[in-house]
Amino acid sequence: MTKIRFFQIFIGFVLVSLMAVSMASGDRYSGIKTRFSKAFPKLKIETIRPSPVPGMYEMVVGTEIFYVSANGKYVFVGNLINVATKENVTQKARGALYQRSLAHLDEKKMIIFGPKRKRVKRTVTVFTDIDCPYCAKFHLEVPTLVQHGVRVRYLLYPRTGIRGPDGRLTPTYQKSVAVWCAKDQRKALTDAKAGRPIKMKSCPNPVAENFVLGQRMGLRGTPMIITDKGKVINGYLPANNLLALLKIKFVKRVAKKIKR
């Protein structure tokens, strides 16, 4: 047998082996998907890949991360911690998912407070509810954040939903729409959060779309703050604490009032 012929046979054997592994891998994932989908038909699996734990797979559903056994019989939800490095593997993976989701958002569907482009150091995206007291409290911190170079991108999110049990549009949803449809959105948002009256009106708006996005991203309360690195802060956080998290030095000074 010539060396060339031997080499051809060897390469063919390797390719067939790789195909077999690939097919086995595909079949394994297919089995996991089938078993999981039967148990949870409403959940759409986006990706499955091996996890750092042998015999367990990381499964992404929306922005939620599950860990499932190779036979698809067992699944658990929780944080996977690397004992040696103390790294939260799940949090890191979830952060990447949030970053990817936010990267595709259209800023034309947001209400933004921020410094001039050249002064922007970091960006945070905030799901905010018009009637949420802690959202109003966070809004008072916005001037300080802006002065320190932080862009605050608001997504209007009515916690009460779009429609109530009676099928009518909820008051919070209607106020959110009114803020969006105002001539000066930032002034209207500030007024609404301060409890001042705003002119009720309607127009094409992204509020319902934001509500669906928030649900998909596992929002459990407002404000939900997401940094440009994908880190999630659930709830109110003072400006100095948020700046520390963003690695921006806090300089105490008199903050300008939010535009009314």
In words, what does this structure look like?
The structure is a single chain. This protein starts with a helix and ends in a 15-residue tail after the last helix. The longest helix is centred in the N-terminal third of the chain and has 37 residues, at 3-39. It is an alpha+beta fold. Strand 2 (56-61) and strand 3 form a beta hairpin. The chain is built from 8 helices and 9 strands. Helix 5 runs antiparallel to helix 6. The strands form 2 sheets. The protein has a 5-stranded mixed β-sheet. The protein has a 4-stranded antiparallel β-sheet with strand order 1-2-3-4, covered by helices on one side.
Q: Secondary-structure map with pairings?
A:
Elements: H1 3-39, E1 47-50, E2 56-61, E3 64-69, E4 75-76, H2 89-103, E5 111-113, E6 122-128, H3 133-139, H4 142-147, E7 150-156, H5 171-181, H6 185-193, H7 207-216, E8 224-227, E9 232-234, H8 239-245
Parallel strand pairs: 6-7
Antiparallel strand pairs: 1-2, 2-3, 3-4, 5-7, 6-8, 8-9
Give a brief rundown of this model.
This protein has 260 residues and is an alpha+beta fold.
Shape: globular
CATH class of the largest domain: Alpha Beta
Query: How many separate structural domains?
Result: 2
Q: Main β-sheet: number of strands, strand sense, barrel status? A: 5 strands, mixed
Order of helices and strands: HEEEEHEEHHEHHHEEH
**Strand residues, percent:** 15-25%
Main sheet strand line-up: 5-7-6-8-9
> Regions with pLDDT < 50 over 5+ consecutive residues?
6-26
Task: State the end-to-end CA separation.
Answer: 87 Å
Could you say what the CATH topology of the largest domain is called? Glutaredoxin
Cα-atom radius of gyration: 24 Å
User: What class do helices, strands and sheet pairing give?
Assistant: alpha+beta
Oligomer: single chain
Looking at CATH, the homologous superfamily of the largest domain is Glutaredoxin
